[in-house]
Design goal:
Rossmann fold; 205 residues; 17% strand; binds flavin mononucleotide; alpha/beta
Amino acid sequence: MKVLLINGSPHATGSTYTALHEMEKVFAQEGIETELVQVGNKDVRGCIACGTCGTKGKCVFNDVVNELADKFEQCDGLVVGSPVYYASANATLIAVLDRLFHSSQFDKTMKVGAAVASARRGGLTATFDELNKYFTISGMPVASGQYWNGIHGSNAKDAVQDEEGMQQMRTLARNMSFLMKSIALGKEKYGLPEKEVHAWTNFIR
Ligand SMILES: Cc1cc2nc3c(=O)[nH]c(=O)nc-3n(C[C@H](O)[C@H](O)[C@H](O)COP(=O)(O)O)c2cc1C
């Protein structure tokens, strides 16, 4: 069992990392392997809607997005962490997620997702909502904790002092572990839910 954690911050060991690393410690206790990939420091462009992925099964830009797609496919859970920038996720992370979720063709159903935001003061829940959208359009159950997953602090030194935020990360990781293990058992017993052919309409036809 494995969880992929994506750090959307340009800071390798900032407050977003502090939150994600608190989760990593719990996953280790739960016997769950983790891999953390930092993307917020990378030069990543957005989706150009070329449609190449529809035929090739991967993004036309062969960068960290295609590397993440391979890792994501092998994982049972995905944690996405972002610093809050103007009450939204970091733009680099959004470029990565748009391209990752749009270009990768493998079935994401029942891979568990969790979103984590870090901010000095405001915009945590807006960012949390924004990130959860990627999971809920992909058949991915969302793990939750004891609050809307966020940590306060301008940097790692501040973030560790957010006692409730740090506890929230541990609770989230414990709940996510339980959910992934339960889904693994459920898959064995019942298999994945039946899927209909996706009906694509644009409201009018
Ligand atoms: C461009 C930019 C915009 C930001 N916007 C917000 C904001 O809207 N609300 C907030 O509370 N903090 C804001 N911050 C502060 C960061 O969210 C905060 O320092 C965060 O903890 C950094 O996480 P990191 O250490 O993982 O990079 C902003 C920082 C930058 C650089």
